[in-house]
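Why should sequence recovery work at all? Because a backbone constrains its sequence more than one might expect. Tight turns favour small or flexible residues, buried strands favour hydrophobic ones, and helices have their own preferences. The token representation captures these environments compactly. In the example below, the structure is given first.
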């Protein structure tokens, strides 16, 4: 018996595609039909007012060496539901003989739909957390084969760290985490805190889990008294025992403060999303471990559509035909989609417009150096601050 997962060769060989794309390619090949097409990737109804575009790196890897041109928004670009005129915004476009990429539509969509969903949720959560730490704890909720994808998308979306070993290695970071209830149950609370402090390397922050047995208030005080380098206490109280979680946090914060432990933070986890993070931050929480809402984030339902054949606009009904240009105003961040027309100036604020569809493959060859995960993450955070303030 084997794990239920496709390997890289399966993806590259088109075995993860929907069968009707294979049949379409066979029909075109048998009839010796070769037509140059221009296909765009758009999302009609995203679940949020804005989306973080992610997953481009894997599309590039898949199409590398194929006789196609690939254009896209830079990975990490935040784009709105529609442009200023209500036109769907192309986030990616492929140009070439349709047979060259027909069987890759399914995996290409999979790459960007899931990664964009996770990165968008991470950005929303980081926006809610502000300057406080957000860690991705979501890999346990999904198939382990995609742990690197989950943690990479979470990180570039704004998370400060990730919990899985392979996910952290994938982005060139050290994994982040606290201590599990299993350690407390095995050793007892105080002994677990002490042994963690004694045996875990110095660079790992001392965050004591305090909700296994006793009252959070008294356990937090005890932890602060026992561990001289305590960074934070962690509350992962189950919902059945939680009561008003915000009031518990306020109480813990108060009791630590009046005893001189104002530097000890409060790290919370368990069923968090952007709304609860915002509420708990306002109650006094200073760090957040977020799991299911990240890894199980709503996918962004992109679709790939041919919009031009042999240079002539053509698309199915309900789609906007013609190869398009995408512009963003450097001043106000507004997006504009045009057909062939070159635009220099924002019609709303008068700012300078930037052409956002950049070349990433020309005749299958990569163009330029791809940005690092830190560059992409910083780009996302910059846009959040510059164009997408708190809702």
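From this structural description, the recovered sequence reads:
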């Amino acid at each position: 018996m084997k794990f239920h997962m496709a390997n890289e060769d399966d993806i590259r060989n088109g075995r993860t595609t929907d069968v009707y794309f294979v049949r379409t390619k066979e029909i075109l090949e048998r009839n010796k039909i070769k037509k140059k097409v221009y296909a765009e990737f758009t999302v009609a109804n995203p679940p949020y007012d804005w989306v973080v575009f992610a997953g481009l790196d894997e599309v590039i890897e898949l199409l590398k060496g194929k006789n196609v041109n690939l254009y896209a928004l830079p990975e990490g670009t935040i784009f709105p539901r529609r442009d200023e005129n209500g036109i769907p915004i192309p986030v990616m476009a492929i140009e070439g003989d349709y047979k060259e990429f027909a069987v890759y539509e399914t995996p290409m969509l999979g790459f960007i739909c899931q990664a964009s969903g996770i990165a968008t949720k991470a950005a929303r959560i980081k926006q809610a957390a502000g300057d406080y730490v957000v860690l991705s704890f979501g890999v346990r909720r999904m198939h382990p084969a995609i742990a690197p994808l989950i943690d990479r998308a979470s990180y570039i979306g704004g998370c400060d760290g990730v919990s899985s070993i392979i996910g952290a290695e994938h982005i060139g970071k050290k994994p982040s985490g606290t201590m599990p209830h299993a350690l407390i149950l095995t050793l007892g609370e105080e002994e677990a805190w002490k042994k963690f402090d004694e045996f875990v390397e110095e660079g790992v922050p001392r965050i004591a889990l305090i909700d296994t047995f006793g009252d959070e208030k008294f356990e937090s005080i005890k932890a602060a008294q026992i561990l001289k380098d305590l960074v934070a206490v962690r509350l992962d109280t189950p919902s059945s025992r939680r009561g008003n979680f915000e009031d518990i946090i306020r109480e813990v914060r108060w009791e630590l403060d009046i005893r001189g432990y104002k530097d000890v933070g409060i790290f919370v986890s368990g069923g968090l999303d952007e709304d609860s993070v915002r509420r708990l931050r306002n109650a006094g929480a200073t760090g957040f471990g977020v799991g299911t809402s990240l890894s199980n984030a709503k996918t962004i339902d992109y679709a790939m559509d041919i919009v031009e054949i042999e240079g002539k606009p053509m698309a199915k009904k309900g789609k906007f035909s013609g190869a398009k240009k995408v512009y963003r105003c450097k001043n106000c961040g507004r997006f504009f989609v045009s057909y062939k027309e070159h635009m220099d100036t924002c019609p709303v604020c008068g700012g300078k417009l930037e052409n956002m569809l950049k070349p990433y493959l020309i005749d299958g060859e990569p163009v330029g150096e791809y940005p690092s995960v830190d560059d992409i993450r910083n780009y996302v955070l910059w846009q959040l601050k510059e164009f997408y303030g708190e809702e």
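A few observations help interpret the result. The radius of gyration is 24 Å.
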